[in-house]
User: What shape does this take?
Amino acid sequence: MPGAPAIIPTMRTILTAKWLWSGTHLLENPEILIEDGHIASIASREIATAQVSALDYPTATLAPAFLDVHIHGAAGHDVMEATPEALSAVGGFLATRGTGSFLATTVTAPLETTLRSLSSLARLIEDPQLIQGKSSQPVARPIGIHLEGPFLSHAKCGVQPREYLLAPDIALFDRLFEAAEGHIRLMTLAPELPGAVELTAHATARGVRVAVGHSNATAAETLAAIAAGATSATHTFNAMRPLDHREPGILGIVLSNDSLYAELICDGVHTAPELVKLWYRAKGPNRAILVTDAMSAAGMPDGEYQLGGFAVQVAHGRAMARGVLAGSVLTLERALMNFIAFTGAPLEEALRLLTTNPATMTGLGGLAGSLAVGQPANLVAVDAEGKLVASIQNGQLINNG
Assistant: This one.
């Protein structure tokens, strides 16, 4: 009929599995209806549905796609390149490994370099199509920025270039925050530095979560930062003052403070399995967070790669620069498997550590970490050992190549 509107067919898919972990509860024999890349309904399999294409994972658990709040790069690219091509490559690789979203994490660099990267990252966060347009299938999205540096301890800077470290300064932080157009969601800060407590309070008031880390702080200095608003700890055990039975230091507070979230790099390289188990006993299923701290070599063969502008040598699963560990080549799917193997934690508990917990800690629960009607259909299917069976982004099954 002339002038009649075109009928656009709705793309529908059904997902079924043995279990669904939604981020809040378990559902047996779930059936998820996806329409045009979004979750249209979640029900039990007993309810009949129309004839649509189906993806069935009869022995697996469906769960929210993973959220990595500490990642510097992958697939040969560093997030501080801050180009559509770089973020598309990183996001494309992460999507094949079950990660649906991430915080693009900076590394300490010359101030002007950092400001330029933050400005470009903000543009890509606000217009994800700039990234998606470079890929033929859905990619993991940067949904915020993790500022790791420059407000770190010289004594515990690890591989971060000490020549670019700066003292905590509210005016400087505001420059960084404005360059990022408000997209800084997390900032690592050494509590013992002069001005750190004041900056913690200021950043918190602007909606930024502060994580204590890269620090030689005492217990008292760490507690002062927590009182000012610090909510998490950056890669627990690594680049931290060692535990002492008379001066517990930052590590003693991280492990004993029930309100503080705590990251961990669960690759068997940064932290021994016995310490992973100790960390989990201390933090429990509601405050523990798995991260990768991955750099550009993740997903790549051994060789030399860049981390924020300096060279890193990668061999046999270790990324090293100047004799110090320089991030990792870990993926969250591997971290999940390692964590379950190291601790014996049940799958539904373990899944919290890379979905609900990082989303809650960062205040990004509306964008990641759970499954609900109306949300984008970003899911994983995993087996009982945490091995990735399938990754689904925007309702589309991702080819993991």
User: Anything to note?
Assistant: Confidence is low (pLDDT under 50) at residues 4-8. The chain has eleven helices and 22 strands. The first helix runs from residue 84 to 96. The two ends are 45 Å apart (CA to CA).
